[in-house]
Amino acid sequence: MPGRKRGLAVDVLGLVIAVVVAAASAHENDLGIALLDKVAADTDTVEKALVDQGFKNAVLAHGEKVGIAVEVVERNPAQSGFVPQAKRWVVERAFGILMFYRRLVRDYEHLPRSSESRVYWAMTAVIVRRLTGATTPAWRTA
Q1: What would the DSSP string read from start to end of 80-133?
Q2: Alpha-carbon radius of gyration of the chain
Q3: Which residues contact 112 (CB under 8 A, 6 or more apart)?
Q4: Among 97, 103, 100, 101, which residue's Cα sits nearest to residue 115?
Q5: What would the pLDDT profile of 74-117 be if each residue is shown by its tens digit?
Q6: Which end of the chain, N or C, is less surrounded by CB atoms within 10 Å?
Q7: Dihedral, 22, 28, 29, 33 alpha carbons, nearest 10
Q8: Contact present, 58 and 70 (Cβ < 8 Å)
Q9: pTM for the structure as a whole
Q10: What is the pLDDT of residue 142?
């Protein structure tokens, strides 16, 4: 299957901690395990990860191995349609912000590592904009 699947680990502000890019055919669990490995290797302050229901027991067990408590945020079965889940919307917002960057809208990059670097590049621009308070128009606005 052509395409890429991106996995993001973000903090409570929506800033990227780690990125994993894999083939679109990769299973969610493989992506989650790789993401936990990267977070554990790059930071020592992450104690808890909130994930959606797509991640199964393998990710929870791997989280225990690397010292990160993994909590599955389940949706309320009484609700129908799309309902943002508390706390998990932060990563969805980060994915939405990434769509403002042209190179990330489509799969232009040939290597997963190159695609990862584009995500870090885009989030660096987001951090700089938040620090400076700059309000430059996006490329989509007229």
Answers
A1: -S--PPTTTHHHHHHHHHHTTSHHHHTT--SSHHHHHHHHHHHHHHHHHHHHHT
A2: 16
A3: 4, 21, 22
A4: 103
A5: 777 888 887 777 777 788 888 888 887 777 767 776 777 878 88
A6: C
A7: 40
A8: no
A9: 0.78
A10: 57
